[in-house]
Amino acid sequence: MIKMSVIKWFDTFSTSLNADFWNDVLIYSLIVAACVVLYYLLRMMVIHVVKRLVNKSKVLWDDALYESRFFHRICWLIPLPILYHFTDVFLGDYHYVYSILETIIRLLFIFLFMFIIKSFLHSIEIRYNADNERKRSIKGLMQAVSMVLYVITAIIIFSILLGKSTASVLTGLGAASAVFMLVFKDSIVGFVSGIQLASNDMIRLGDWVEIAAGGADGEVIDITMITVKIRNWDNTIVSIPAYDFISKSFKNWRGMQELGIRRVKRSIFIDMNSVKYCSEEMLSRFQKYEFLNDYISKTQLEMDAYNKQHEFDKSLIINGKQQSNLGVFRMYVLRYLQNNENVCKTATLMVRQLQPTENGIPIEVYAFTKTTEWLPYEKIQSDIFDHIIAAVPFFDLRIYQRSSDKN
Question: pTM above 0.85?
């Protein structure tokens, strides 16, 4: 039956192949060539004028439109209607040929409008990214809008090719939606996750993020509708599905970067056997240390007054209030940090004793540096602990260090 239909169509079509037909085809071909030439002439003229205006203008939008080739594509808006008009004039009497060419031109119109809209969307992204202060990426949002544009274009194309209304095509797609959702489940999940990331401002370009999935620990360099691309600090690049940032926990260091301070939270372990009350000789020696002279004298006066008031037996050092070398050391470290120009004084600053362990007593420094840059931060942190570790023996304390016998 299909063979007979093709033969019947060919016989019907061949009856129109006369001399007049070929004359019309020749003229129409010349019109097609003229429309192509007209497009290139228009593009040369328009682009030349637009480029000069763009270079002179201080407005940034025209630069974005020019870079996205928006003006190149609107040049087709004159040749295509001319071609469509002359298709009806010269080939309107030849039903089969005219129907094919009309369909092709209508499809070209659809593609043209799609590309014009796509160029405009791209210009919005270019203009947005031109502002260096904006770290929030809209690439995923633009891809989502482009995806909707592609879907609408595909529906219109199918309706033209099938000769049915758009509503009929949508009805058919609705019936097959369950199959589409099953086949494209991962893409749909990624699409929705990308929109959530963009709308909730969860990550931005330049953010330092850590996420266990994929072992990512570095800077966000690209955010798309489906994936987030991260450059690790070892310069490897990891692509993480956008869905992982919605379904799993991750750490974003943006808050630290925005405040301009970075936390130092590190402990040294003191040997418990080296902790003791301070003798008068020790207090006299500690009082000579910078940051401690006023503290030692003031604290000792307060303790002497307290012990005298309660009439403690001074023959035993354990009676009453006494200063310990560990307590004096903690105050020394605190005042050292308070006088360090690289430590932020408005943020939390403390030196605290943690729960003793089998490795000794942890003395933790909790402070914030005035910089978030990696190299300066590491230098400041190292300088602080270089000084603290070297100062420990001056308070008759020992750092716990697990040793091993060497044969």
Answer: no
